[in-house]
Amino acid sequence: VLTGKLSWYKDCAVAVQEVIDDGGPMVNEAKIWRLLVWIWLGNGGHLHQAWNILKSMPCTQIFKEGDERHPLEVIRFVVYAVSECGALMSVIGSDGLDKKSRLAKKRLS
Asked: Are 40 and 67 in contact (CB under 8 A)?
């Protein structure tokens, strides 16, 4: 079994600093929402570019229960960014799934 410390990775340090520690030690719905966006972007997106744009937008700063605009705004941003870049992996960060799917292509073909 291979083990390691996640704290050695820059993605974890950025997530802790900008998502978990942001706004103090208390955990609330807004902080959980920001963490979900961070994870959904694949560790903040490619080179954290998507996160650096989204983190200051109202759709990630505020969370209102039952308000479906927040996730739709995040999805709309990602769709727009992908259409501008021309590639999904230029926006969404690597969470290991892209590597798994590339390696699996030979087995599935």
From this structure: no
CB burial of 15-41 (b: ≥16 within 10 Å; e: otherwise) equals beebbeeeeeeeeeebbebbeebbebb
Read off the pTM: 0.72
- State the Rg of the chain over Cα: 16
pLDDT, tens only, 79-90? 999 888 888 878
- Farthest CA pair distance, the chain: 50
Burial class (CB in 10 A: 0-12, 13-18, 19+), 101: exposed
d(CA 59, CA 70): 5
Query: Which of these, 60, 44, 55, 54, lies nearest to 93 by C-alpha position?
Result: 44
Query: Who's near 77: CB < 8 A, 6+ residues apart?
Result: 50, 53, 54, 57, 59
What is the spatial distance between Cα 105 and Cα 35, in angstroms, rounded to a whole number? 31
